[in-house]
C-alpha cells in the first residue's frame, strides 16, 4: 500500500471514530459536543477506543473537557 492510500485510510478511520464518538458525547453534552469531541480526538487512540466502549469513562472525560472549557472561558473574560 502506498503512502497516499495509507493516509486516506487513516483519515477515513479517524472520521469513522470521530463520528461514533460525537454521537456518544452528544448524549452527555449536546451544546458543545463538537468541541468536546475534537478535544477527545487529541487523546491516544487506545484511550479513545476505551471511551467508546465505556460510558462511565466517557462521561468522566466529557466532564473534564467541560471543566477545561469553563476555565478557559473564565480566564478569557478577565
Please give a structural write-up:
With 78 residues, the chain is mainly alpha-helical. The protein has four helices and no strands. It has helices spanning 3-28, 33-40, 45-53, 55-76. It is globular.
What structural keywords apply?
single chain; 83% helix; 0% strand
What is the strand and helix layout of this fold?
Elements: H1 3-28, H2 33-40, H3 45-53, H4 55-76
Helix pairs in contact: 1-2, 1-3, 3-4
How many β strands by DSSP? Answer: 0
Radius of gyration, rounded? 14 Å
Biggest β-sheet strands, sense, barrel: none
**Low-confidence parts, pLDDT < 50 over ≥5 residues?**
none
Mean pLDDT: 93
Strand content: under 5%
Shape: globular
Count of individual helical segments: 4
Order of secondary-structure elements: HHHH
Distance between the termini: 52 Å
Helix content: over 70%
Counting helices, strands and paired strands, the structural category is mainly alpha
Provide a brief overview of the structure.
The protein has helices at 3-28, 33-40, 45-53, 55-76.
Amino acid at each position: 500500500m502506498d503512502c497516499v492510500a495509507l493516509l486516506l485510510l487513516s483519515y477515513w478511520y479517524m472520521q469513522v471514530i470521530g463520528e461514533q464518538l460525537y454521537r456518544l458525547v452528544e448524549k452527555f453534552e449536546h451544546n458543545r459536543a463538537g468541541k468536546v469531541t475534537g478535544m477527545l480526538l487529541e487523546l491516544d487512540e487506545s484511550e479513545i477506543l476505551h471511551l467508546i466502549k465505556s460510558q462511565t469513562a466517557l462521561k468522566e472525560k466529557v466532564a473534564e473537557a467541560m471543566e477545561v472549557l469553563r476555565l478557559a472561558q473564565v480566564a478569557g473574560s478577565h
